[in-house]
Design a protein that fits this description.
Strand 4 (55-59) and strand 5 form a beta hairpin. The radius of gyration is 28 Å and the shape is flat. The protein is mainly beta. The strands form 2 sheets. The chain has a 3-stranded mixed sheet with strand order 3-5-4, with no helix packed on it. It has a two-stranded antiparallel ribbon with strand order 1-2. Helix content is 0%, strand content 29%.
């Protein structure tokens, strides 16, 4: 966005006027926004075998996000000293 500024010094104190240019959107001629997109429509997401509670996890071998169960193992909990 370009800002045009002009300083008017006809009086004893100068005055600045700042006007912003009209907003412009640049998009390809074939661009058609779609407000509601499902995950299955996104190219780099695989929903094969998706189950309740799964999370999207990136797989660098396939270069895709995949739905998998997040597993965490806690071997020790240290609560500090009191």
């Amino acid at each position: 966005m370009a800002i045009n500024a002009r300083v008017n010094t006809t009086g004893a104190i100068g005055r600045a006027t700042i006007k912003s240019s009209p907003k412009t959107a640049i998009a390809a001629d074939t661009f058609a926004p779609k407000p509601n997109v499902s995950l299955s429509e996104i190219n780099d997401i695989s929903l094969t075998g998706v189950e309740n509670g799964d999370a999207l996890i990136f797989n660098s071998a396939t270069n895709r996000f995949e739905a998998n169960t997040v597993q965490a193992f806690v071997s020790e909990v240290v609560g500090g000293t009191f």
